[in-house]
UniProtKB/TrEMBL annotation:
Organism: Cercophora newfieldiana
Domain of life per record: Eukaryota
Site (Important for catalytic activity, responsible for pKa modulation of the active site Glu and correct orientation of both the proton donor and substrate) location in chain: D135
InterPro entries: Glyco_hydro_43 (IPR006710), Glyco_hydro_beta-prop_sf (IPR023296), Glycosyl_Hydrlase_43_Enz (IPR052176)
Signal peptide coordinates: none
CDD domains (UniProt xref): GH43_CoXyl43_like
Name listed for the protein in its UniProt record: Glycoside hydrolase family 43 protein
Length: 330
């Protein structure tokens, strides 16, 4: 399957249908001399483009709407504009959520607002209060209530917040560390309901718990084939909430299901096996009655981990609502 976008490197695609078109909000990967490390320093992105299309036919054109936000536009940011997402608020405006390092090198999540899905976006002068870590994924439920999921281990710093809120930051956990050992439970992604104006968290941040179906207990920290690492995504099909994510160092895209946006979620299986490149990150969206997985791999760059390209594949569910594994590109 060919990449959707070939004139730039793009990754971490968050796709939504707005005004009848598919809009894609990816990271914009760029060349760098920074050596690969477990902190992700080589993912040194400095701006965002937005893309859209009115068809997911492989031959259909994808429009590049150009740069919609850049590092120098955001007063609190020092570097690393990582995986973004966007949502439409009750006021009809569009909100771009993005993680970046602040001036103290700590990842926070910012929000920028625009009148159109393709931007441009004007950032708030400060990050969202109480935000931390990376990979914001917005979800607007069928009742109109908006939520923000976020978090990512290691370079994404989630392991520095084991006691919950942003005030508990513990720098001694920086680096490729996470809970481990007998009895240790995996750290979960985080979620909070958004305020009606979409600019802040409306409540205390909660942990997203994923249960092992065979025990009904939270996934173990050492279960690297199933534990949450990064790339949270939420979609709803019928009454079921599907929380999907990357397992990071084991390189799977997995999902878990629940009956509320907060969970708990029960592990459901793998969506995608490892692709070419270290990271795997995705979104799932319904468009014209069919369901689609947007993800990235490093095929276009010949396997350079930080030069990724967005792809799209149709996904299918069985009669019980399980997502059928998606064939990986050979
Ligand atoms: O693109 C930078 C980081 O790589 C993202 O935030 C992670 O999800 C991983 O894809």
């Amino acid at each position: 399957m060919a990449p959707l976008i070939t004139h730039l490197y793009t990754a971490d695609p968050s796709a939504h249908v707005f005004e009848g078109r598919v809009y894609i909000y990816p990271s914009h990967d760029r060349e760098t001399d920074i050596q690969f490390n477990d902190n992700g320093d080589q993912y040194d992105m400095a701006d965002y483009h937005v893309f859209s299309t009115d068809s997911l036919d492989p031959a259909a054109p994808v429009v590049d709407h150009g740069v919609v936000l850049r590092t120098e536009d955001i007063p609190w940011v020092s570097k690393q504009l990582w995986a973004p997402d966007a949502a439409q608020g009750r006021d009809g405006k569009y909100y771009l959520y993005f993680p970046a390092r602040d001036k103290e090198n700590v990842f926070r999540i910012g929000v920028a607002v625009g009148d159109r899905p393709e931007g441009p976006f004007t950032p708030d002068p400060e990050p969202i209060k109480g935000s931390y870590s990376i990979d914001p994924a917005s979800f607007v439920d069928t009742d109109g209530q908006a939520y923000l999921y976020f978090g990512g281990l290691w370079g994404g710093q989630l392991q520095c917040y084991q006691k919950g809120n942003a005030d508990t930051y513990d720098a001694s956990w920086l680096g490729p560390k996470e809970p481990s050992g007998p009895g240790a439970k995996a750290l979960g992604a985080r979620v909070a309901r958004l305020t009606d104006d979409m600019h802040q968290f409306a409540e205390e941040v909660r942990e997203v718990v994923i249960l092992a179906p065979e025990t009904g207990e939270p996934i173990d920290a050492d279960d690297h084939d199933r534990r949450f690492f990064e790339a949270a995504w939420m979609h709803k099909r019928g009454d079921t909430y599907y929380f999907s994510y990357s397992t990071g160092d084991s390189h799977y895209l997995c999902y878990a299901t629940g009956t509320t946006p907060y969970g708990p979620f029960t592990y459901g299986g793998r969506i995608l096996e490892p692709v070419l490149g270290w990271t795997t990150h995705h979104s799932i969206v319904e468009f014209q009655g069919r369901w689609w997985l947007f993800h990235h791999d490093c095929e276009l760059s010949g396997g350079v981990n930080h030069l990724r390209s967005v792809k799209v594949k149709e996904i299918f569910y069985d009669d019980e609502g399980k997502i059928l594994p998606v064939p990986v590109d050979q």
